[in-house]
Write a structure and sequence with these properties.
There is one protein chain. By secondary structure, the chain is mainly beta. The chain contains one helix and seven strands. It has a single domain, classed as Elongation Factor Tu (Ef-tu), domain 3, CATH 2.40.30. The protein has a seven-stranded antiparallel β-sheet with strand order 2-1-5-6-7-4-3. A hairpin with a 6-residue loop joins strand 5 and strand 6. The longest helix has 10 residues. The two termini are 17 Å apart. The model has no long low-confidence stretch (mean pLDDT 93).
Length: 141
């Protein structure tokens, strides 16, 4: 990505085990750092020192069955992985050369499906990072 260009929401997506989420409508990533507060008799205020961090990712999609042998994950695929308690490889990127790539290992923490009268069914997923979150640039292999 050239400097100053903004990432378009439609381009930034997640993939689980190398497969994007079928009919994805949104995704987000969150990183939180634990701050250790230190106050002594020699300080006037509290000094905060960064400690560990944790990260999570969430996504939403329209609920639909993918084609047999498809190259994407659907609600059923992710629910199966969650019920098995499997750690998954997860990443968030545009898939364009030089753009940001955030990746790591995670567990599927929750899945849900909503079906309101008069609208398409949606699925929601949350992932809890397990270990480090790598921040690099996407390179085509």
């Amino acid at each position: 990505m050239a400097g100053g260009q903004i990432y378009k929401g439609k381009d930034l997506r997640i993939s689980v085990g190398g497969k994007t989420l079928y009919h994805s409508t949104s995704c987000s990533i969150s990183v939180s750092t634990t701050l250790e507060a230190i106050a002594t008799k020699d300080t006037e205020g509290t000094v905060n020192v960064p400690s560990n961090y944790e990260w999570s990712l969430s996504a939403e999609s329209l609920t639909a069955d993918k084609a047999v042998g498809g190259t994407q994950n659907d609600f059923y695929d992710l629910l199966q992985l969650q019920l098995k308690g499997e750690e998954v490889d997860i990443e968030m990127t545009t898939g364009k050369e030089g753009d940001v790539l955030m990746k790591g290992k995670a567990y599927i923490e929750s899945t849900s499906i909503s079906a309101d009268t008069g609208s398409s069914s949606t699925s929601s997923f949350s992932f809890k990072g397990n270990g480090d979150l790598a921040l690099t640039r996407f390179k085509k292999v």
